[in-house]
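Task 17 of the worksheet. Students: predict the tertiary structure of the chain below and write it out as structure tokens. Keep your answer in the requested format; marks are given for formatting as well as content.
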Amino acid sequence: VWGWAGGLAVAAGIAALTLWIAPLGHEVPIGTATRVADKAADPRVSSYQTGIGERSAISLPDGSVATLDTDSRIQVAYSDKERRVYLLKGQALFDVAHGKAAPFEVYAKGQRITAVGTIFNVRIEGDEVRVSMVEGSVKVRPIPRPGADSGIPVKELTLSAGEAVVAEPARPLVARAVDASQIASWKGGLLVFNDTPLSEAIAEINRYTVRPIAIADAAIGKYRVSGVFKSNDPEHFSQAMTEVFPLEVTHATDGAPTLRARAD
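Model answer:
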């Protein structure tokens, strides 16, 4: 049974319309990550990665689960005294096993996230590291760079469920409120937009496809989009935009869609 959820909000000056897009209660199946064999690597370290459009749940040695999003990579380094995961690229959701003596630590772009029995999301985007809490709490702490002034105290931030932080180099950590129910929507193959510029929504959709959506005119990207959409269907997303905005879709020779202003 298919239900439809979501909607599109049209930019100011254009009559508001609503279009129901994404199927409720339907999750795109999660596949299997590729285990990477690194030459001369520490045999105690395991590497996993997903390709574009793939998602994968990885069972860790302690019973924790790391779910990788599209085009992501982690290294897992466990010992008797520590549980370490390095997010090297992309995005991952961590469901941490309870009752373990060793701390569970995720390292990403100069940030260390420490958790005990919790669920949290970590995403690398450029120099930014976004940490979002679904359940429980974590501590986020910048790792001092080599040569940094050791006399300057490093401030640690504790996040609770429904909070997130965007960590950037040389900037203070500041928590903000988020909708915990939407943090891991990507795990089910869905993307949630809330008054998001069309250009940003398309950039997010494009992370999941080898045939990215193009915009013929930058002005198109200023439309605002709200709703829930399938991450693996750029063609459906593009066609949906033409239902509510004065746009049309053309296609490149490889089938990749381009959104452009509709000719009157």
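Marker's comment: The chain has a mean pLDDT of 85. The longest strand covers residues 128-135.
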